């Protein structure tokens, strides 16, 4: 589902993290917040399903976690700041997940940023 | 009356800390960014402000969305950094200024800004990266920092005009503090960027440059934007401009631009740097 077609999202390609999303994604974000601790990251890595269950994630959230589906996580109420901690656990940085979300290669994504940054695009 | 001598705005993204840790400042990618900083460091080392009031946003280190303050102020003698989930090395403690912090908190609540007042507060990259940038080698222990945290994570967020008014109220509080100490104000974060969604990678160089101009000469114009406007114009995280706007609200006297740099992108972000000198109103 593209946000362009989602009447609840006023900006295309953008998932505003508001009360509705914060409620929907509470358990998911709480799990990702726990990843501030190394012990929590280790526990997740040992048994991801058990760790997701501990925070009461929904089936759709667990699926998105399994598939490293960043857009899916946002759609399921993930806040980018907590999703970033999950990405960190996967050793992905902000540019990596930018590429994933836009469907570009990392090099394409970086090139787009350079163009925009220089005012060319 | 404490003396507000100037202000600095800077980006605070974690990639900057990584670049410093990896000694990448002179690489072609980072050089245009880091080359902006020596004049600001020189000014800080010459003027030696006693206190920095630093506007930043927490990105899920101290505050989770179980209880998310709209505005929070630290009143502690010391603040600590901690692992934010990436295993990046933490940095030395940040010195606080409890007495002035409490004075500001008292004055703000009196003025209708109902702050969350924090005696313990872990500070994340939003606060620490600017300090590491200004004092390389993390030599910032001598300067006292008052953290002011603005919600830029969960809507509803305070609007630009409210953040500007918060800055004005903080300025009034500092001016009424019976001390000859010198104070500098830091606005951190921004400028245009978007980390999330199919629109990740949104950047708006033209808007960033306009913001920097307006911040110096006509800051009230920036307060006419809504947060949704900022999201549409510059990307979802452009709301971090609110920390710059709050900073500018503090400066009620004459403002002179001493230095600026703009470089985009660093990581996904348009990075602006401003050094403003401030003369107290007569």
Automatic annotation (TrEMBL), chain A:
**One Pfam family recorded for the sequence:** LigA
Q: Where is the Extradiol ring-cleavage dioxygenase LigAB LigA subunit domain?
A: 28-113
Q: Which molecular function term from Gene Ontology is one that the record holds?
A: dioxygenase activity
Q: Which UniProt keywords apply?
A: Dioxygenase, Oxidoreductase
InterPro entries attached to this UniProt entry: LigA_sf, Xdiol_dOase_LigA
Do you know which SUPFAM superfamilies this protein is assigned to?
Answer: LigA subunit of an aromatic-ring-opening dioxygenase LigAB
Record's NCBIfam families? PRK13378.1 (NF009918)
Q: What is this protein called?
A: Protocatechuate 4,5-dioxygenase alpha subunit
- The organism encoding this protein is Marinomonas aquiplantarum
The taxonomy runs: Bacteria, Pseudomonadati, Pseudomonadota, Gammaproteobacteria, Oceanospirillales
Automatic annotation (TrEMBL), chain B:
Q: Which domain of life is it from?
A: Bacteria
Entry GO MF terms: ferrous iron binding; oxidoreductase activity, acting on single donors with incorporation of molecular oxygen, incorporation of two atoms of oxygen
Look up the coiled coil feature and give its residue ranges: none
Keyword Oxidoreductase present in the record's keywords: the answer is yes
Pfam families in the record, alphabetically?
LigB
Keyword flag Oxidoreductase = yes
Domain Extradiol ring-cleavage dioxygenase class III enzyme subunit B as annotated: residue spans: 7-270
Any idea which UniProt keywords this protein has? Dioxygenase, Oxidoreductase
Task: Name the chain's protein.
Answer: Protocatechuate 4,5-dioxygenase beta subunit
Q: Which organism is it from?
A: Marinomonas aquiplantarum
């Amino acid at each position: 589902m593209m946000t362009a077609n989602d009447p609840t999202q006023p900006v295309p390609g953008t998932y505003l993290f508001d009360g509705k999303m914060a409620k929907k994604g509470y358990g998911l974000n709480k799990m990702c917040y726990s990843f501030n601790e190394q012990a929590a990251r280790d526990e997740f890595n040992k048994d991801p399903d058990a760790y997701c269950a501990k925070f009461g994630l929904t089936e759709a959230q667990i699926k998105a976690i399994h598939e490293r589906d960043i857009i899916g996580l946002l759609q399921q109420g993930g806040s980018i700041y907590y999703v970033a901690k999950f990405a960190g656990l996967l050793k992905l940085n902000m540019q990596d997940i930018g590429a994933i979300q836009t469907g570009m290669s990392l090099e394409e994504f970086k090139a787009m940023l350079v163009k925009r940054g220089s005012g060319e695009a | 009356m404490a003396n507000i001598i100037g202000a600095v705005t800077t980006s605070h993204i974690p990639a900057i800390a990584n670049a410093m840790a990896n000694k990448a400042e002179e690489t072609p990618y980072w050089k245009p960014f880091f080359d902006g900083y020596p004049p600001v460091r020189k000014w800080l080392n010459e003027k030696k402000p006693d206190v920095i009031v630093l506007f930043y946003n927490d990105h899920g280190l101290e505050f989770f969305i179980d209880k998310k303050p709209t505005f929070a102020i630290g009143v502690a003698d010391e603040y600590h950094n901690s692992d934010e989930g990436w295993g990046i090395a933490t940095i030395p403690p940040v010195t606080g200024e409890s007495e002035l912090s409490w004075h500001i908190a008292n004055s703000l609540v009196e003025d209708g800004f109902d702050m969350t007042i924090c005696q313990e507060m872990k500070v994340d990259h939003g606060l620490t990266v600017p300090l590491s940038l200004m004092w390389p080698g993390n030599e910032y222990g001598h300067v006292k920092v008052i953290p002011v945290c603005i919600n830029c994570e969960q809507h509803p967020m305070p609007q630009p005009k409210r953040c500007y008014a918060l800055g004005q109220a903080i300025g009034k509080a500092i001016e009424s503090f019976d001390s000859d100490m010198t104070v500098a104000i830091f606005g951190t974060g921004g400028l245009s960027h978007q980390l999330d969604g199919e629109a990740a990678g949104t950047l708006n160089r033209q808007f960033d440059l306009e913001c920097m101009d307006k911040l110096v000469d006509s800051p009230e114009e920036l307060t006419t934007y809504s947060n949704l406007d900022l999201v549409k114009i510059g990307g979802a995280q452009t709301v971090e401009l609110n920390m710059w706007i709050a900073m500018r609200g503090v400066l009620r006297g004459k403002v002179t631009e001493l230095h600026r740099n703009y470089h985009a992108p660093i990581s996904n972000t348009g990075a602006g740097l401003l050094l403003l000198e401030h003369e107290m109103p007569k």
